[in-house]
């Protein structure tokens, strides 16, 4: 299965989390941007924004770093060391004249901007609202007014405010972000560290094997992980949290199996994504839709 191989080629050091990797992969491949026509048609962005929320130590930062490395144009920043000007645009003075200095979102135009520690930059979220939806950064400083393109996919990772996710609170209460900011993300994954002694033991063997650098030991540890359930699968919050009929089938399709091909080399995965972004522009067929077989109650 080509999709399964691509999913497992993205950050193969993180075992499991197939749905998260699939969401990140689809964001890397991107969608189709539709420009507003002369007849007043609405412009639609083609970028898919993804937010990872969950307990610490589940590999969110590694997944973002892997996504930035796999993107043809990727920028990785940390939220606790970034400002609004560093995200969008700042004004600098050179040789007595003012000039614009592009921030991360502008530098990643037609690419991917990965923001780690997204929860640490709550005061700068307002700078992202327009850029994520309108795909441009408007600035009026030092007597200069301009709009810079920021057709950028935003991949972000955040930790809950109390360190671990409180299941007795809503997502907004755990993150303390505005509903407008949360609505900008098309996919929101909730990663929870569920206690599972057997899976944790297998996972620790997998991590130790990776650090040991012994191929045989790593293969054996991976085989033991395949013997049990993946465990720790995320919740996909943007489909209403229900148990959709297609989601378990998708997870079963994505899980690695014995005898699968090895993950693609990083350079080949990067070229694959670059080719797909440039030459593949899918269109919706219109079927199934609401009320039709296979699409009842869903879009």
TrEMBL record:
GO biological process: DNA replication
Enzyme class: hydrolase
GO molecular function: ATP binding; single-stranded DNA binding; single-stranded DNA helicase activity
Classification via Pfam families: MCM (PF00493)
Residues annotated as transmembrane: none
Origin: domain of life: Eukaryota
Span of domain MCM C-terminal AAA(+) ATPase: 2-207
PROSITE patterns per record: MCM_1, MCM_2
Classification via InterPro entries: AAA+_ATPase (IPR003593), MCM (IPR031327), MCM_CS (IPR018525), MCM_dom (IPR001208), P-loop_NTPase (IPR027417)
A single cellular component GO annotation: MCM complex
Annotated keywords: ATP-binding, DNA-binding, Nucleotide-binding
E.C. code: 3.6.4.12
Family: Belongs to the MCM family.
Descriptive protein name: DNA helicase
Source organism (scientific name): Chlorella variabilis (Green alga)
Phylogenetic classification of the source organism: Eukaryota, Viridiplantae, Chlorophyta, core chlorophytes, Trebouxiophyceae
């Amino acid at each position: 299965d080509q999709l399964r191989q691509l999913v497992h080629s993205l950050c193969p050091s993180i075992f499991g989390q197939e749905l998260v990797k699939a969401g990140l992969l689809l964001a890397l491949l991107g969608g189709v941007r539709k420009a507003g026509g002369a007849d007043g048609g609405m412009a639609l962005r083609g970028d898919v924004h993804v937010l990872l929320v969950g307990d610490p130590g589940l590999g969110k930062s590694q997944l973002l770093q892997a996504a930035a490395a796999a993107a043809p144009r990727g920028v990785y920043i940390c939220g606790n060391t970034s400002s609004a000007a560093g995200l969008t645009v700042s004004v600098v003075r050179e040789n007595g004249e003012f000039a614009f200095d592009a921030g991360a979102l502008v530098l990643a135009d037609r690419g991917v901007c990965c923001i780690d520690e997204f929860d640490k930059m709550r005061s700068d979220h307002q700078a992202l609202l327009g850029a994520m939806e309108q795909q441009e950064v408007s600035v009026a400083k030092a007597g200069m007014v301009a709009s810079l393109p920021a057709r950028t996919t935003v991949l972000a990772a955040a930790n809950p405010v109390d360190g671990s996710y409180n299941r007795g609170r809503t997502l907004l209460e755990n993150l303390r972000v505005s509903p407008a900011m949360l609505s900008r993300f098309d996919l929101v994954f909730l990663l929870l560290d569920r206690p599972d002694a057997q899976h944790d033991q297998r996972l620790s063997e997998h991590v130790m094997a990776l650090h040991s650098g012994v191929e045989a030991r790593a293969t054996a540890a991976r085989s033991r992980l395949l013997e049990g359930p993946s465990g720790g699968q995320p919740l996909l919050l943007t489909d209403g949290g229900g148990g959709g009929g297609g989601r378990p089938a998708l997870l079963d399709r994505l899980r690695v199996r014995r005898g699968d091909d090895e993950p693609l080399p990083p350079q080949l995965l990067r070229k694959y994504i670059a080719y797909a972004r440039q030459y593949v522009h899918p269109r919706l067929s219109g079927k199934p839709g609401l009320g039709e077989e296979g699409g009842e109650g869903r879009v």
